[in-house]
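Backbone geometry tokens:
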Amino acid sequence: MRGFPDKLKKEYLAVALLVGILCLILAIPVKKETINETNTAIEEKNEDLKEGAWQEQIQARLQNMLNESEGAGETKVFLTFENSWENVVEKDENQTVFQKDATGNQTPYVKMQKYPKISGVLILAKGADNPVVVQNIQEAVQALFQVEAHRIKVMKMN
């Protein structure tokens, strides 16, 4: 570096110093809390996806059953839900019971999951012009989901 002017030597020294500081910053370990918070957010998003998938699966199963029923013909089903999933945690004398995972994180022990309650049902059916078919569909939905008759609407499909 004898042939370089002093000004260039200082610039190279400054760049090397900045690169060194950047390497030190990147080498600092990340707090586990940040990782755990990220994992929790991902799990909550996955839980929402599971819930949405469950609701779509229930609609599809009801639609398939109605499509196979006598007189209903082709059907489409739409369900509305009153609430969302509810996790019931285990308690021991008003203290929540926790479980540890492989990384040592504690989570409440879930003893039961309550499914969302169905609050309304809309069914479009080709055979809905027949009152007997409409009554059979309403009775089937009432039996399956414990929904009152006034919360079930069966309409004729075009």
Summary: The radius of gyration is 30 Å.
